[in-house]
Amino acid sequence: MRMRIRVWMMPDMLPEVYFMRYAFPCARVLVDFRKTMTEEEYERMREAVENDTPLPREYLEKTFPKAFERLRQTREDFWNVETIREYFCEGHEAMLSKDLPPLVRRLCVVKPGKLVKEIKGFFRADLGGGDVRIVAPLYKGAKEGDTAMIHYGYAVEKI
Amino acid sequence: MCLAMPGKIVKIEGDDATVEYPGQTRIARIMDGEYAVGDYVFVSAQIIVQKIPDEEALKSLKAWETVFENEDKGVDDA
Description:
heterodimer, A: alpha+beta, five-stranded mixed β-barrel
């Protein structure tokens, strides 16, 4: 089922920053499971996401090869918000390897959730079907009542 | 730090849960909901995100065992 999503975003958000916000939540898997990212790199990415600082495209393409493999298939000029959004919200699940643990496979799917309660800067998010998580917001101005795209334990973007 | 996997709560003191992983233990904060010692949980940003059903947790931990086994043998993970 194709999702029609109205994207709320800062007009001048760089596609690198947009990609990083969606990719950061599953970067932990690269550190712990794939061992293709170091702790230092993870920390650097976390800080960059917090400050909306873009990391170089070459670095992102090298570090998240599966995402870019799929993005390249989508269109030639994939460094734009719409194409990146489509990948994470629709194409990401298909790229998950069969060898990943079930928990990772489940939490790696990007899904909408309602921020039903704010708790000290975090939110209880209801994704439906009994999937309730405490999430950290990655976008500014997050508030109760928002519906946001959820990736692992993060509310990435309001929709 | 192996955080992309479920950990087991071994102690709860107020809002702080001691969560055990293979080879290490971490403290995570309970922001919301009820938890018990023995529960498997997913932790991110030092908080408990969600309780994980035992079956899913145990299957996931088994999948992780392969990663550790390969580490011990010095196998290069592709």
